[in-house]
Amino acid sequence: MKKVEAVIRPFQLDVVKEALLEIGIKGMSVSEVKGYGRQKGHTEIYRGAEYVVDFLPKIKVEVVIKDEDLDNVLDVIIDSAKTGKIGDGKIFVSNIEKAVRIRTGEVDNEAL
Amino acid sequence: MKKVEAVIRPFQLDVVKEALLEIGIKGMSVSEVKGYGRQKGHTEIYRGAEYVVDFLPKIKVEVVIKDEDLDNVLDVIIDSAKTGKIGDGKIFVSNIEKAVRIRTGEVDNEAL
Amino acid sequence: MKKVEAVIRPFQLDVVKEALLEIGIKGMSVSEVKGYGRQKGHTEIYRGAEYVVDFLPKIKVEVVIKDEDLDNVLDVIIDSAKTGKIGDGKIFVSNIEKAVRIRTGEVDNEAL
Amino acid sequence: MKLYRKSCLIASLLIFAPSMSFAGTKFNSGDTAWLLTATALVMLMTPAGLALFYGGMSRGKNILNTIGLSFAAYATVSIMWVIWGFSLSFGKDINGIIGSMQYLFMSGIGVKTLVGSIPTFVFASFQMTFAAITVGLISGSVVERLKFSSWIVFTVLWVTFVYAPIAHWVWGGGWLSNLGALDFAGGTVVHINAGVAGLVFALMLGKRRGFRKIAMPPSSIVLTVLGAALLWFGWFGFNAGSALSANGLSGAAFLSTNTAAAIGAASWMFVDWLTHKHPTMLGGASGAVAGLVAVTPAAGYVNIIGALVIGAVSGVLGWFGASYLKYKFDYDDSLDAFGVHGLNGIWGALATGIFADPAIGSAKGLLYGNPHQLFVQLIAVLATITYSALGTFILVKITSAVTNGLRVSDEEELKGLDISIHTEKGFEI
Amino acid sequence: MKLYRKSCLIASLLIFAPSMSFAGTKFNSGDTAWLLTATALVMLMTPAGLALFYGGMSRGKNILNTIGLSFAAYATVSIMWVIWGFSLSFGKDINGIIGSMQYLFMSGIGVKTLVGSIPTFVFASFQMTFAAITVGLISGSVVERLKFSSWIVFTVLWVTFVYAPIAHWVWGGGWLSNLGALDFAGGTVVHINAGVAGLVFALMLGKRRGFRKIAMPPSSIVLTVLGAALLWFGWFGFNAGSALSANGLSGAAFLSTNTAAAIGAASWMFVDWLTHKHPTMLGGASGAVAGLVAVTPAAGYVNIIGALVIGAVSGVLGWFGASYLKYKFDYDDSLDAFGVHGLNGIWGALATGIFADPAIGSAKGLLYGNPHQLFVQLIAVLATITYSALGTFILVKITSAVTNGLRVSDEEELKGLDISIHTEKGFEI
Amino acid sequence: MKLYRKSCLIASLLIFAPSMSFAGTKFNSGDTAWLLTATALVMLMTPAGLALFYGGMSRGKNILNTIGLSFAAYATVSIMWVIWGFSLSFGKDINGIIGSMQYLFMSGIGVKTLVGSIPTFVFASFQMTFAAITVGLISGSVVERLKFSSWIVFTVLWVTFVYAPIAHWVWGGGWLSNLGALDFAGGTVVHINAGVAGLVFALMLGKRRGFRKIAMPPSSIVLTVLGAALLWFGWFGFNAGSALSANGLSGAAFLSTNTAAAIGAASWMFVDWLTHKHPTMLGGASGAVAGLVAVTPAAGYVNIIGALVIGAVSGVLGWFGASYLKYKFDYDDSLDAFGVHGLNGIWGALATGIFADPAIGSAKGLLYGNPHQLFVQLIAVLATITYSALGTFILVKITSAVTNGLRVSDEEELKGLDISIHTEKGFEI
Ligand SMILES: Nc1ncnc2c1ncn2[C@@H]1O[C@H](COP(=O)(O)OP(=O)(O)O)[C@@H](O)[C@H]1O
Ligand SMILES: Nc1ncnc2c1ncn2[C@@H]1O[C@H](COP(=O)(O)OP(=O)(O)O)[C@@H](O)[C@H]1O
Ligand SMILES: Nc1ncnc2c1ncn2[C@@H]1O[C@H](COP(=O)(O)OP(=O)(O)O)[C@@H](O)[C@H]1O
Questions:
Q1: Is residue D6, in this structure, part of any structural domain at all?
Q2: Do A28 and B35 count as a contact with CB atoms less than 8 A apart?
Q3: E289 in Cβ contact with E140 (< 8 Å)
Q4: Interior CA angle at F84 toward F80 and F86, to 5°?
Q5: How many C-beta atoms lie closer than 10 Å to residue F210's C-beta?
């Protein structure tokens, strides 16, 4: 199995989620992260003190999938998360050795 | 070393933590995630506008362990995180190539 | 490519970020986690009810890098995140099989 | 349009005001004490009550800007009121249309000048808080996308050219004073006026990006409920203060106000419960405000049964405006200034013509054998709607020209107005 | 039980009220101004002060519902008060037990009807705010697990069958009026009554899931402190308003109130510091409320030294109730309505019998050579406890039958009442 | 230094007070009603208004402690005021330096004792709220690093040895009473005094760890704006209440207060806009407070044009103090008690000497041909600065000795004072 981690723009989450559901991905976990990259942050000013906030709010989507779904999933995420402007984010793929569904004890592909 | 990532119900965290401590796991990192899966979300209503919130609050426990502890850890998490109802969550196992304790520079099993 | 995950003290983030930028790392994602380990937590008291809060706020820095940068990155993080007191945190390294830049579709080292 | 009773009262008082002094028999320290208090209460409504009520309903990225619109409205109106606003509204009548500039910078008013039994300085302060909240209410229709500069320009223009004239016609001795319409504390001048202006402004401004497509969860219903509680609190100053004295009429207005707010909250929550199987706190807060709006023109005229009916209907009406009408006609009156204030302002003005009880105030409504009153109320409502809609349309056009458009950029809207306009965050906890 | 002085005063005033008019010599605009203000201040206590004080103490998933209980209590009581509540409490006495229905829908009361020097409409509004907060206080014992429907039904029943009778006995010319007990602003009718009712209700309802097993961190001590500050502010209306006039007695009550609150806050924090080595802000906020409760019956009777002692003890007593007694006897009086209000209501009522200084009010306590007063106070306390406990027991049983049980389901409790009951969140920031 | 007019008035009133009674001709229920209200309004400023204004500006880990400093200041001063503070300030004058201990524990004051037309109990309560907020303001300079025990000790010492004497000199019949300086509601006694004390305290305490090196984002500008709105609301009691009666002078003070606050908000935001291209809401809130500070000594003396100028300058001055001066001279006046209150207190005191209009109050400023007044104001300002700086210096030294240092440990500062001092969190939502 593969874990696909996609760091995307917060406002693209709904689109990405729908796109994944459409190709039969039934579960995922998302979390809020702060991203640093080429995209510029903003400046906050409080009584003259300026703070450059260069970490931007991003959403990390984590989805563990069967090996054979990988290309499909990557395509779908790229398609749905892309706006073409700096800051669209990245996708990272890593290997998952084992998966378990806690409720039933099912393992690996069965667990997804 | 292995990284065990368990996505569990927020209210099970204390039980899971205690169970891991009991088998000698001395460190872990947890974070809040929103999970999408078979379990149903809820609807929020604001002046007639209904929002289906289908991402549910979950806790992700990340613990890096020695290879030989894996089975034990999996058993313990499954046991302690299980309620038997949809939404109990998943466990994913991946490989960790290197670990370092920042304070001392100790590496790998020594660092855990 | 390697993914370096460093769980560090919240107040060290700025130092770590600057140190990574200096060695040419141009992107990273950080998130808030709660860490359990040797470092002691605190007690909260509300009308006589005491709650031991043993999960401490930590920051997880995730950065995906080229294989050849690994040692350099580890050194830099250790250097910049270290205070020498219990609770400085850990670094974990794992393998990344594929990386994609969503905006351009560039892959692997190009995508970082 | 506080026409018949109060405005006539005020108008006549104003005429004689300069000749009255502390040495005279009319000054009353109890009335003055209450009006000072009432003014402070109404003041609180704008930068605190309304700010939180609206702020809590806006998204987390816009909460500060939403609060800022109320805050800025209050500050801006405070300044212009003492320069020309008060004079325009309450200066010597010019052809029934507008007040003279005699009170520019409050000139000619001293510590001994009275309006009725209270000092003119107190009366002017009290009236200022009404002008301020009226503009503040409009902001509910346009939050989350309006430029801050446009808001300031619009505020200045609108108070000058829409609010001040109507206030003059109704309360300053203008042409509406003689029509005989009833408006105890501002159902038409304040609520219909603001609701209609909000609707027009919202239509001209366009919808928020993603309206009805993406979720727009309120940043904090807790703050909205707190805001509603502060509005309710301040409204005692608004309505019971409009008696311009501390007596049985203030007491009647006070109790009617509370009653209508309470049953408005209950009825909105009840409709929630019926239609969605859940009573919402946003519904409760909104219903209380709906009841307060509806009872505003009626507070010093109706008895308790009148207040109960007015309030009960108001919750249903507000619910209808905010949860149905807006979606049916697909306009983005974002926080329902029209749905809640416009509709209930109209209802309250008409209801005053129905329920006015001569045992409370000195007027008779339909139920007490005076159907003419209802007709007069209808005229007043239509006049206000028409002038407000037209005036607002023109002033929004001018504002747009002056500030080079009305909307923030798409990118700013996406990022949130707190950061893009104010370079600040609402919460960092 | 504002028996001896104030209730007698009120009772006699009520008898003569209908014959008084503005033309008479008794109406006073200064008193009326203060009572209008005081009523607004007390109003603020329920949907804002208490709502935040309690809301901040409940968990994040229940904050909105907790606020909702106060809000709903205020709205519900407001409605029923003008229909039958005021009449039941202050209508013509029937056998010393209850008021007649003569004031149903406030009938027979006009803008010129007076109670003492203030309009009856103002008096009725003032009294309404007391009834509302009394119910609101009870909610502290039962939050985080009670069904919303049960709360509404309980509120209606309890005000009708427990609050209104006691208020009548004490303030409406009922049998307790002649006993000679002192209660300046509601120590027994409000605080003992609410505290005891809360305890009974909590015992019948059962504990929250996980009580004493899982951490139940307050959602926001910041909001709790703000709530306490608003309660403190409103309490000036509560206590100094209970003089029913603006004079030296109001002033004495005002200063005693502030003093007791301040030293209550200090003493609770001090005990915190002693026992846990840390002064908590929740302790400070709670101690202020404890002091305010304890001084309520005493405010217009005691001198500053009395107020200092009453307040100093109150902080210790509240701490004892909330941090010790509850755990010792293992009942889930969740936000300590009994621990803070019940205990301090009792202490305040007895302390009034000890410290009443004839130089302030017109009564003498134990320290001024009148041990009998303390005995009378004890009787009043016991009577209130007994009736409140019994009445509440029966009404909770009825409520449970009517609403098909009192508790939300386990799953709803786990999810939090904000989402499960209201389909809303408190914060989304 | 409310010298010339008000303090003389108060001083003379105090002399005759004991002989006045309710039976006399002087007691006025309307004035009393307003002063009761005004006292409640000023009370709200410290544990709610200032607490939120400051709390929202501090970091999330220190918000509760910051609120706690205001809360504790209010409670502590409330207690010491009725024991010895009031007597020290307003007891029989001893050599123009200090009041006698005759009113220890408020002894000798009864419900019929008057000051002017209001009961002494009301006057004492009103004055207490001034003492409390003055200390509270100082906390803005020292938050996020001060020990709680040091704060309590400092509060007791400072009110006793700095505040009470100055209040006596100016308002209690002391030596400054005869100087003829004008201070309507406390520009010198309250604002210069607090601002200077804050600066001295901050310099002695040292900077926060990481000052100017790490980001210190405010926990909640939303709460800061709410706090500013509550301060604004309460300030009507502060300034209009300082007329000690409900009349045209109160009305003038009310309107001037509102005007200066509004234009202060506007001018600070405008400078923001000019210098940073963005108007900030923190600037708006701060500017409103700046305007309120500056108009405090002037409120009952100047006309509307005076109020407009005073307020417009105040926003610029506050901006300059908080955004420039502090960084230029590199001191950590954390929330700008000196930058906002100190500077604007000075400006307001001088401006009163310039703009005092005999048509409003009974004094003439420079613009009305009385340059001497400005000179007198300058003397008053310098005297206050000198005494406050010296006194504070000594008392901070003593405090440090008594509480074994002033600062929390580095580790506690890093963790945040909410957890380390109070074992609590501000928010858990
Ligand atoms: N090397 C990296 N490791 C982990 N996350 C990264 C890395 N580089 C970028 N990111 C994440 O991707 C986000 C987008 O990157 P950015 O350089 O701003 O734009 P783009 O992806 O369009 O090139 C960043 O905010 C960060 O969260
Ligand atoms: N393929 C997946 N990849 C990552 N996380 C998943 C995946 N499937 C489910 N999850 C996580 O597991 C949680 C529980 O899954 P769900 O299908 O609701 O119930 P169950 O685990 O009982 O089958 C989800 O909320 C989500 O956080
Ligand atoms: N086995 C582990 N797996 C994952 N995270 C860990 C593990 N052990 C420690 N951590 C993380 O590292 C943090 C620091 O660990 P701790 O034992 O407190 O101090 P130190 O790193 O100095 O030994 C913990 O708070 C936790 O977030």
A1: no
A2: yes
A3: no
A4: 90
A5: 12
Whole-angstrom distance, CA of residue D234 vs CA of residue E40: 8
User: C90, C91, C96: best mutation site toward chain B, by most B Cβ within 10 Å?
Assistant: C90
Domain count, chain B: 1
Residue D169 falls inside a structural domain: yes
Q: Cα(E186)–Cα(E170) distance, rounded to whole angstroms?
A: 10
Give the residue from F377, F187, F167, F374 showing the smallest Cα distance to F296: F187
Residue D82 domain-assigned?
Answer: yes
Query: Is F146 in CB contact (< 8 Å) with chain E?
Result: no
> What CATH number does residue A97 fall under?
3.30.70.120
Cβ contacts of C45 on chain E, cutoff 8 Å: 272, 276, 278, 280
- Helix ranges (H only) for F101-220 are 120-142, 148-158, 164-171, 193-205
- Select from E153, E321, C29, F77 the least CA-distant residue to B31: C29
Element spanning F44, H or E: helix F29-44
Q: Tell me the one-letter amino acid at E43.
A: M
- For residue C75, give how far its alpha carbon lies from the nearest alpha carbon of chain A (Å): 20
Measured between beta carbons, the chain F residues lying within 8 angstroms of E40 are none
Residues A9-52 have pLDDT tens digits of 998 999 999 999 999 998 999 999 999 998 888 888 899 888 88
Q: Which domain holds residue A70?
A: 2-111
Tell me whether residues D22 and F247 touch, CB distance under 8 A. Answer: yes
Closest CB from E217, E248, E308 relative to F121: E248
F19 CB-near residues (< 8 Å, 6+ apart) = none
**ipTM here:** 0.95
Task: Tell which residue, E194, E193, E189, E184, has the closest CA to residue E170.
Answer: E189
Q: Which ligand is nearest to the CA of C4?
A: 1
Report CB contact under 8 Å: C47, E282: yes
**Contact across the interface for D119 and F263, Cβ inside 8 Å:** no
Angle E422-E425-E428 from CA coordinates, rounded to 5°: 160
Instruction: Summarize pLDDT for E119-152 with one digit per residue, the tens.
Output: 999 999 999 999 999 999 999 999 999 999 999 9
Q: Considering CB atoms only, which of E214, E414, E419 is closest to B42?
A: E419
Ligand nearest to the CA of B30: 3
If you take atom 25 of ligand 1, which residue's CA is the nearest one?
Answer: A35
> Which other chains touch chain B, taking contact as 3+ CB pairs less than 8 Å apart?
A, C, D, E
Mean pLDDT by 10 residues, chain B (112 residues): 95 93 93 93 86 91 94 94 93 95 90 85
Task: Tell me the C-alpha to C-alpha distance, in Å, between residue F387 and each of E349, F192, F196, F392.
Answer: 46, 11, 10, 8
Chain D within 8 Å of B79 (Cβ-Cβ)? Answer: no
pTM as predicted:
0.95
Is B91 in a helix, a strand, or coil? strand
User: Burial of F428 by CB count in 10 Å (0-12 exposed, 13-18 middle, 19+ buried)?
Assistant: middle
Which residue, chain included where needed, has tokens 């929740």?
A: E282
Q: Which of C3-7, D24-28, E178-182 has the highest mean pLDDT?
A: C3-7
What is the CA(C4)–ligand 3 centre distance, in A?
Answer: 15
Total domains present in chain D: 1
**What's the CATH code of the domain at F140?**
1.10.3430.10
CA dihedral of D291, D295, D297, D302, whole degrees rounded to 10: 160
Q: How many angstroms separate the alpha carbon of residue C59 from the centre of ligand 3?
A: 11
Per-residue H/E/C for F329-393: CCCCCCCCHHHHHHHHHHHHHHHHHHHCCCCCCCCCCHHHCCHHHHHHHHHHHHHHHHHHHHHHH
Domain extent at residue F235: 24-422
Reference E400, options E226, E219, E96, E146; nearest CA is E146
Give the nearest chain A residue to F220 (CA atoms).
A46
State both tokens at A69.
């779904």
Ligand nearest to the CA of C104: 1
Residue F18 maps to a domain: no
